[in-house]
Amino acid sequence: MLMTQSFILSSDTVNAQSDKSQPGIIYEIFVQSFRDSNDDGIGDLQGVISKLDYIQDLGANAIWLMPVHPSPSYHKYDVTDYYAIHPDYGTMKDMDMLIKELHKRGMKLIMDFVVNHTSSDHPWFVESSQSESNKYHNFYVWRNYEEVKDEINKATTSLDSDNVMQWHEGPLQNERYYGFFWKGMPDLNFDNPDVREEIYKIGKFWIKKGVDGFRLDAAKHIYPDDRLHDTRLFWEEFTTKMRSYKKDIQIVGEVWSSPDVLATMFKGLPSLFNFQLSKAIPDLINSGQINSFIKSYQHIQNAYGTAGVPVEDAILLNNHDMNRIKSELQQDSMKSKLAISMLMTLPGTTYLYYGEEIGMLGTKPDEQLREPFIWGDNNFQEKTWMTPVQSTHETVIPLVVQKGDPNSLYNHYKHWIQIRKSYPDLATGKLEFLKNKMPGLLVYVIKNGEKTYFVAHNVSNAPSPYPVQDNTKIISEVSPKFMEGKYVIPPYSSLVLFASGKK
Questions:
Q1: What H or E segment, with its residue span, contains residue 84?
Q2: β-bridge pairing 142-144 and 167-169
Q3: Rounded to the nearest 5 degrees, what angle is found at the Cα of 345, between the Cα atoms of 339 and 348?
């Protein structure tokens, strides 16, 4: 059994009307592509504020903002000032208003916190590169060329970086600095206690502002891979510090690695993204290979069971670094509906990527994973910061149209999110796979105390029978046909039965 927890809204940030037992459903936003409030073609914080009611109505109870700090890049993962808001996005007053409006709705704000590196334009690095005697020189990892010349061309690609040259030439003669991702993102030197204190100071600043949690970028790369133990120790120290400022701070880390490595990180990073599951779900739907999915999921279960601490599984279908789920499923709407039905019936905290609820498309390069949301409420002529390539009005039905169609992907998302919120044991219970001889069915049970849920997903393109369970009621979206003592589950559809106990 997979021992997982789900992020639960806490009493200190929830108003009197909020359900404190709601499972975490977190909506990721790339501000630049979400909603433009001032007609300059660039999304901004006021645009996010204007759509909070939409996000809440969809069913999310928290948002995760990709970086909002000043940065020379469009994606803003190379920060130049951790204490400010990028002027394209607005001002600190706008951020204060966003936090206030979220909390008024009983919602939380998870903020992207990029601590592995800064921008090469950050004042720390500019100062660092001027002189070896400069105070900030030791904020980064500098080495003499002779020390690293044999390493410069020996790097290999990783799951989260295709950069093969990680020692970069600086302005000082014969010196090289370390930048895991590229030369514009120099890594901070966490062997320097002053660096760690600066990071804790930044975290405290935003917690005092009212931020409820941090999504930690590149969390595996605080130190090089051969110093993974030091990386673990840093995150333990970080989490302890952040909890001293806010005891229920939400912390989720990005670690692209095997479940076995993730299991060793949970003491410092109480929640980690389950990228193996993100791959396993579309692989299952595309191939129909149920045993392969079960084997993959059980590998995750077994690895996480060795963590020795409570595990909050962060489950998702895609994010800003991954091909969008509908593209992974050959743009098939039925398969896309099944993917979210599966996600909403697995234990953990769920993360949704903006636009997946309307079937936005996107495959690498990264810019095409982050194209503008298609609202469709401005006569279909929204001005945007980029010309979309994959998610256009020709390929994606705008939200305004989908809202009026009860069979749309949007309404399917909304319905399954509501099921998860109405039956939070789906998020917090223990999962066990059941033996099944029915064709095309993935079958499992989720138990939480006296409550039991039987879940069957038809991953085939043909109807499949499933035996009736006594003393149960159907809580899935569409009631299947009943024939000869069995339910008949349509292709790429799901059946959830609730048994025993009170809801």
A1: none
A2: unpaired
A3: 105
Q: Can you read off the two tokens belonging to residue 240? A: 């302890």
- CA–CA dist 313, 112 (Å, integer): 18
H-run or E-run covering 156: none
**CA torsion sign, 341 to 343 to 347 to 348?**
negative
The three-class DSSP label of residue 359 is coil
pLDDT band, residue 14 (cuts 50/70/90): very low
The tokens for 125 are 């690095």
* Tokens representing residue 390 in the block: 């994959």
| Pair 10, 22: CB distance under 8 Å | no
Q: How far apart are CA 254 and CA 367, in angstroms?
A: 20
The Cα–Cα gap between 461 and 285 comes to 10
How far are the Cα atoms of 47, 92, 98, 387 from residue 89, in angstroms, in the given order? Answer: 9, 10, 12, 19
> What 3-state class would DSSP assign to 441?
strand
User: Residues near 105 by Cβ (< 8 Å), separated by ≥ 6?
Assistant: 15, 52, 53, 56
Is residue 303 over pLDDT 60? yes
Distance of alpha carbon 350 from alpha carbon 354, whole angstroms: 13
Instruction: Give the H or E element holding residue 426.
Output: helix 425-428
- From residue 471, alpha-carbon distances to 152, 289, 431 in Å are 65, 31, 20
CB 353 within 8 A of CB 28: yes
Q: In this model, does residue 275 exceed pLDDT 70?
A: yes
172 burial level (CB within 10 Å; 0-12, 13-18, 19+): middle
Q: In whole angstroms, what is the distance from residue 401 CA to residue 189 CA?
A: 50
pTM: 0.94
Q: What share of the chain is helix, strand, coil (3-state, %, to 5)?
A: 35, 20, 50
Which residues, listed in sequence order, are joined to residue 64 by a DSSP beta bridge? 28, 110
% pLDDT > 90, the chain: 79
Could you list the active site residues?
217, 254
Answer whether 118's CB lies under 8 Å from 142's CB.
Answer: no
